[in-house]
Structures are given as C-alpha cells and as structure tokens.
Amino acid sequence: MMSSFLYTQTTIAHSVNLHLFASADGIACGNVKGPVSPNVTGPGDISEIRTALPLAKAFAFAIRVANRNDVEIVVSGDSSLWDQRWGCLGTPSGQA
C-alpha cells in the first residue's frame, strides 16, 4: 500500500516538516524541521535540523526523525519536486 503525506503551506508543530525546493543550480533539495527530541512539548521544540540536503537524502532523514519521535511527516514547498514513488501528497481541507 502506498503511503500518503500531507502537503501544506505552513510548518506544523509536533510534526517533521520536509520543505522541497530547487537550489540556484536547479538541484532538487529539502530542508527538514522537526522535534529536537522525543516527547516534544511545544512549538519551541521544533527546529531546523538539516538544510539543503539532496531531496532523496532529506526525505530519508525526515523518515528517520519521524520514526524516532513517533510523529507524522508533512511536506511543503515546490510540490513538482515530489517523487511519486514515495507516496501520494494530499492537501488538508481549505488548501489548494
């Protein structure tokens, strides 16, 4: 069964946030924000963990952080960079 990931335009606290973007030279990259430790308690516990990783490495890192902290992954940024083999991107109600 293919996994589903929430696509959003904002960072969501208590989640691992994977932001997709293209570097100045056109390489697909990702920034990962997420809980700095298990059992997060508030918005201050979410921070930029890794920046400007090649996209596949950013996705793998986001999975590792999400599994370690038992939270979901949400995706933002340039959705055209998303690799469909990783799963489906869905939007919450009210977002396009």
Explain what you see:
The protein has 96 residues and is of the alpha/beta class. 16% of the residues lie in helices and 38% in strands. It has 1 helix and 6 strands, in the order ββββαββ. It has a 6-stranded mixed beta sheet with strand order 4-3-2-5-1-6, with helices on one face. Strand 2 (16-22) and strand 3 (28-35) form a beta hairpin. The longest helix is centred in the middle third of the chain and has 15 residues, at 55-69. The chain is globular. The protein starts with a strand and ends in a 6-residue tail after the last strand. The mean pLDDT is 85.
What are the key terms here?
96 residues; alpha/beta; 6-stranded mixed beta sheet; 1 helix; globular
What is the rounded Rg? 13 Å
Helix and strand composition category: alpha/beta
Give the biggest beta sheet. Answer: 6 strands, mixed
The beta-strand count equals: 6
- The proportion of strand residues reads 35-45%
Low-confidence stretches: none
Q: What distance separates the N and C termini? A: 25 Å
Give the % helix. 10-25%
User: In which order are the strands of the major sheet placed?
Assistant: 4-3-2-5-1-6
Compressed to H and E, one letter per element, the order equals EEEEHEE
What count of helical segments does DSSP give? Answer: 1
On the 0 to 100 scale, the average pLDDT is 85
Shape: globular
List the helices and strands and how they pair.
Layout: E1 4-7, E2 16-22, E3 28-35, E4 46-54, H1 55-69, E5 73-77, E6 88-90
Parallel strand pairs: 1-5, 1-6, 2-5
Antiparallel strand pairs: 2-3, 3-4
